[in-house]
Structure formats: C-alpha cells, structure tokens
Amino acid sequence: MSTAHAGEDGYASATGVSGKFISYGDKFRLCDDAYDFMQVYLDYRYWRKDGSLQEERHYLAAGWGECSTWDHDFGEGRLLLFQVCVDNPLAAVPDLCSTWERGIA
Predict the structure, then answer these.
(1) What DSSP designation does 8 have?
(2) Domain 10-104 -> CATH class
(3) How far, rounded to the nearest angstrom, does the alpha carbon of residue 21 sit from its chain's CA centroid?
C-alpha cells in the first residue's frame, strides 16, 4: 500500500499581478490585475530528484483582467519556488516582483 502525499499550494502577488501554484495537478495560474499596458510573467525554480535545477518563465499572452494556467508534471513531494512580476519595459527600472513563494508538488 502506498501513502498519498499532500502537496502544498502557494500564492504570490505584487501590484498589478497575482499567481498561484496549485499542487493538485501541478499547475501555475497567472493573472494580470492592472490596466497598465504592462506584460506580466511568472518565474519558477524546481529541484529535480537528481538535484538539478529547472528554471522557467511563463508570460501571460492576454492583458488586463485575464489569467492563464500552465500544467506541469513535477515529482511528488518536490519543493519549488515561484514569483510573479510586472515586466517594466524601461531597461534602467527593475521589474516589480513578488517575493519568492514556495509550493510542494
């Protein structure tokens, strides 16, 4: 008999953007919360079973008031970190990002 692992959901937000990790189904959801003509994205870091790091960025193709969801297949019980950001088009100004939040697949 195997024991099911309960994952851990996570939520992140910054001005104009919100996102979450949904452990059931290993999904990220990203929403553009501001009418500011700026693109939003979600970065994540996932440590594979062999110890290697997978880093990826998801951009939201739609605009204000829209959300997108991305499905993944992470190893059960594996830690991941994610943050959501507003992409500032000015090179000298850093992107506005949430703190890094955690989830467990």
Answers:
(1) B
(2) mainly beta
(3) 6
Q: How far apart are CA 72 and CA 27, in angstroms?
A: 6
Which of 7-31 are b and which e, b meaning 16 or more Cβ less than 10 Å from the residue's Cβ?
Answer: beebebbbebbbbbbbbeebebbbb
> Domain residue spans in the chain?
10-104
Specify whether the CB–CB gap between 37 and 83 falls below 8 A: no
**41-97 pLDDT per residue, tens:** 999 999 998 989 999 999 998 889 999 999 999 999 999 999 999 999 887 889 999
Helix (H) / strand (E) containing 66:
none
| CA 104/CA 3 separation, integer angstroms | 16
How far apart, in whole angstroms, are the C-alpha atoms of residue 98 and residue 17? 9
Determine the residue type at 84.
Answer: V
Statement: the pTM of the whole predicted model exceeds 0.70: yes
| C-beta of residue 100 within 8 angstroms of C-beta of residue 81 | yes
